[in-house]
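Summary for the steering committee. The consortium agreed at its last meeting that each partner would contribute one worked example illustrating the joint modelling workflow. Our contribution is presented below. We chose a case with several input lines so that the handling of multiple components could be demonstrated. No manual editing was applied between input and output; the record is shown as generated.
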Amino acid sequence: MVALRERGARFAPRRVSSLAWRAIVLIGISLAIMVLDARRDGVGWLRGGLAHVVAPLHRIVEAPFAIHDAVSSSLTTRDSLRAEVAGLKTQVQQDAVALARLRALELENERLQHLLDVTPREALRTLTARVLNVDLDSIRQRVLVDRGSADGLLSAQPVLDAHGVVGQTTRINATTAEIILLSDSNHAIPVQIERNGLRTIAVGTGDPSRLALPYLPRNTDVQVGDKLVTSGLGGVYPADLPVATITDVRRDPSQPLVQVRAAPVASLDRDREVMIVWYRAAPASPAPTPEPSRQTAKGKSP
Amino acid sequence: MNDTYATHRLPAYLGALLALLLGAIPLPHVLGLLRPDLLLLVVIWFALMSPRSTGLGYAFFWGLMLDAFSGMLLGQHALGFVLIGFLVHHFHLRMRMFPLLQQTVVVLILLWLYQFLMFWIDGVSGHPVNDWSRLIAGLGGALCWPLISGVFARFVQRH
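What follows is the complete predicted structure of the assembly.
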């Protein structure tokens, strides 16, 4: 160190000091940006500008996968397509029957609720989004989808797949949006046990196949196999969506809380397509609104 | 002089862009843990070999790009890159003389320092990730160093 400083002094004293100065200035700028960015939208202009630069880069990373999908779908044979169509047709028929029953139940439910004078359920409107093959950060559980503010997305909207809750939107760019998965260690979702209505909170563990329920006392009535659904508290997720199944309950007599693990029902790390949901407590008409307004998906972001 | 700088900057920026894109390709879980910070390795290489044309400003720019690209707190990687860039720039004459193995060890230490800084910023900004996998990523990066320095030494003219 001493030798180096001497050498610096002999050869280029001004360059070394200017190097240190430049480093200090740039570190100061970085710190300032960090502080401003940590407060909401402190450097929104900078983030917005960079998002325009970065969005095409995300598309470039995605491109080989998109091309592979396109090529493999255009190369499928006629027979396999026929078989697929036949399968889908039977599936549609079965679903139509199930849907007709469901509709009858829904009408009955509405009549009963009207009799009881209960506020009707929230209307859901969904938008399908494709998950981009971009690995944002291997430690965090976040994914990028190909819909953005151009499609009317807002922050803190629930995201579902065919099986259950996937997560919620966080950062919305013009054409892409970031989704924080249930399993991110910064994510918590208010849930209730379907069997007995017990409310608690499920937090992410960083492992896409596992959630933790850290706030249950030891004498809680919770069993392996219990289903967890959203409780509707917290304002982000509508009620009664499937979230997870309890896989492990460990009661340690020396601990006041029971250690509970649950497996998400949505396939968090394998989804290619997800549904983004707008919902609100519909006061008079439960018909879905075509244009999402600011109030539809208000809620706390993580 | 300006010409040589310009011709040198183009490969530097192209290499960094390539590293940024390669760093985002999804990998299976185990490989994903070993995923090296390719962009940081590229920044280290250029800070080592041509600190004057691609030094701190270059490191800052690409750090900010990585922040925007991965949707992290803006300025986080920029800070880490500038710090590592400064250290490499400061010691570049000495580091160039090291044999490859010793250079790799120094790079490993730099990567761990960087990972620690990221860990610390994550903690302060309220996104703590308590995971040893960060150290493994540093190891993966150090393993890539001989490869990267070999490839760049072949294709990029030194200054």
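The radius of gyration of chain B is 15 Å. The first helix of chain B runs from residue 2 to 22.
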